[in-house]
Amino acid sequence: MINYPSRVFEKVVSRNPNEPEFHQAVKEVLESLEVVFDKHPEYEELGILERIVEPERQIMFRVPWVDDNGDVQVNRGFRIEFNSVLGPYKGGLRFHPSVYDGIIKFLGFEQIFKNALTGRPIGGGKGGSDFNPKGKSDGEVMRFCQSFMTELCRHIGPNTDVPAGDIGVGGREIGYMFGQYKRIKNSFDAGVLTGKGLGWGGSLARTEATGYGLVYIVEEMLKDNADSFADKTVVISGSGNVSIYATEKVQQLGGKVVAVSDSGGYVYDPEGIKLDTVKRIKEVERGRIKEYVKEHPFAEFVADSSAIWMIDCDIALPCATQNELDGESAKSLVANDVIVVGEGANMPCTPEAVEILQESKIGFIPGKAANAGGVATSALEMTQNAMWDSWSFEKVDAKLEKIMVDIYKIISTTAKEYGKPGDLVAGANIAGFLKVANAMINQGVV
Q1: Which domain holds residue 252?
Q2: Is residue 95 part of a domain?
Q3: Which tens digit of pLDDT belongs to each residue from 174-204?
Q4: What is the residue-wise DSSP string for 98-140?
Q5: Which segments are annotated as binding site for NAD(+)?
Q6: What residue stretches are annotated with the Glutamate/phenylalanine/leucine/valine/L-tryptophan dehydrogenase C-terminal domain (predicted)?
């Protein structure tokens, strides 16, 4: 007889065809939950899974804008408001050509459980567009963002849905969207978007939060084994905010990051990545990582970003994008005696890679726990906005570190309670699910 999670998953695939990323995210969670339903059959009786895999609301809209040549361009905009049982929908906006409803649903579904693990009162949502900001002028990005927000503003609010940034959406894009929201609503609702500029409602440490949080939770796992980042060799994919600030925190804790990447390839610097160079190339010049080798003669550039996992390292932190680390990459990491893999991006390891790492007893922390620092600090930004207050970097950073340490304790304890000690994938899925499911029961059929 097919068990309850399997029956629900078959229904998800049937009702959402041609959305492999969403299927992957749902399957990964549901596979962990069989032990939960053995203990709590009431969840099946109340149809919790059928409700939790279906978004509360899906919004798709056209985004017309005028480029610098005076030609009209049209993109698609998306917002998936997945689950609000714990609080207003919370999740980033992604601007990238790969965006379609399946990607946004996968990200929104992950966000439900990630947000639950933070302990903050926030639900799960996600959004974005197939617009590509790369190569666009500031004027083109501004006109697109204003058009995008002209529709999105109908559906969001400080107590309803609070978007943030994601891939392709940084401080520039958030600023343009906030300005348009304020213009239309005639109201300075600071809490409607997070990732804002520091001069107008943003939070200190938000830029660093996802990368710092990733390192904090990996450090906690290392402490569990009487170890630390000190003198460890670390490989980090990506070179955006998550990668840059994970690198910064690893270096502060005594580790040596030897490689970072972008979509064009990776740089390997055996002397250790020089972070000032990477920050200037990526944050100021908006350039490509291959420019790094022009200034550092001992560094090497390889035009194959997926090959970064062939590098010998103690700790691997995939921070670029979904499904970037596959089974062959996982085998390379195992062969090189990696001790911990922490997901800085959303679902960067394929199911095969996760299986190989876990079977090899490699410490593995899934993204819904490991990269929760960004959304946790966004929630702290919402708190500051609600209080009309601004906290010091040190205060926000201390709260972030405590949240990440608490997440590690929660997911490791839950894994043990449900007979899966050391399986932090199961621990994260079960802990997040229980919090959401119990709230759904308490609030009735919603």
Answers
A1: 209-361
A2: yes
A3: 999 999 999 999 999 999 999 999 999 999 9
A4: T--HHHHHHHHHHHHHHHHHHTSS-EEEEEEES---TT--HHH
A5: 210, 241
A6: 203-444
